[in-house]
Design goal:
With 251 residues, this protein is α/β, with parallel strands linked by helices. Helices cover 45% and strands 16% of the residues. The protein has helices spanning 20-34, 56-60, 64-75, 89-92, 94-108, 115-125, 139-151, 169-172, 177-189, 208-215, 222-233, and strands spanning 5-14, 38-47, 81-84, 112-114, 131-134, 161-162, 194-197, 219-221. The strands form 2 sheets. The chain has a 4-stranded parallel sheet, sandwiched between helices. Strands 6-5-7-8 form a 4-stranded parallel sheet, sandwiched between helices.
Length: 251
Amino acid sequence: MSQPKRIRLGVLTPSSNTALEPLTHALLTSFNTQQSTYTITAHFSRFPVTTISLSPSGLAQFDLAPILHAAELLAHAQVHIIGWSGTSAGWLGFDKDIKLCEGIQKATGIKATTSVLALNKALKLWDVKRLGLVTPYQDDVQAKIVENYARIGVAIGEGIERHMGVVKNTDIAEIGEEILDGLVDEVVQGGVDAVTTFCTNLVAAQRVGFWEKKHIVPVFDTVTTVIWDMLHECGVDATELIGWGMIFQKV
């Protein structure tokens, strides 16, 4: 019997994030146990992020230099692809992630993607025009996200977005499933083509299957989107992965 092909995913992580690493490991463990062709592992590198805001200090956390340094450390592990598991391009602008990926590839020679760019690919594949948006963020951060999606033809109107006004990143991971269940219920009632749980420190990815079964719409969690895109870019067929969302059934 041939040995499974080993693929290493490099994941860039906000320093204060406590959700995305265990969720990423759980998803990949599910994938590895459901098939024998591949053994996929995740390897993480952090850079400083402690708050989410539009203040000068909050925005400065996402300057390219520290992120590129973290990516260079991942390159030491000879990962096959690097993914930024974060949503800052939602309020900074999608071009920020495009430039980041270009910078990573130039610095390391390794292809890169991000949670937000992957989400945008999924929205295009599903032809999403009305998107339900659930985040933990403040009013002004949420407004920038809505504005940036409007620019690419994705409407997030009144009644199909919910946010919680949280600034401290470690507090985001404490938001429970019962709260997220209620927020997803509310945005779906507004009539949407899909929902996104938009923050990689929300403990939400494990709940996607439940929401999709209940509401019969795709739910794109941003911890999941970056893994989906990294696997796709590595040529991995994940269409048989069960329990982590419809996104994996779409090639």
